[in-house]
Amino acid sequence: MATEGYFKRTAFGLSPVSANADICESIPMGNVVRVKISQDRNYEHLKKFFALIAVVFPHQDTWATIDTFRDKLLCAAGHCEEYETLIRGNGKMQKAVGLRAKSISFAKLGQHGFNQVYDNCVEVILGKILRGVSSAELEAQVLDILEGRKAA
Fold first, then answer.
1. pLDDT at position 136
2. How many whole angstroms separate alpha carbon 27 and alpha carbon 13?
């Protein structure tokens, strides 16, 4: 029988969150159980990513839509995959290789990977789009959106 629950790391090990206390009580003392540990993605961090996109999008004029901008930013940050397509050139069809952004959905990317993607996007933004802006200034703009002081 499999049981799932949420646990909090403490100085003494993992302790069940109050609603899950009965999980541990149902295991006889001394029994060995198999545990699968996973850490859920931080939804607030995902909102921070979309606030970052909203801050930067108006400061570029290459991409017409925010969705295209997000996809190209993810590719520039290295979070992409190659794909093959056919294009017409010189009157005949030829293979071409393109890049498309990988998904950042909760099911496809864990928190550690998401942190890396976010940091890489910030590097691209500061190095190629908002040159001269510090990471602290960018962070302040993102927090203004998250805390409702500025519209997205």
1. 97
2. 16
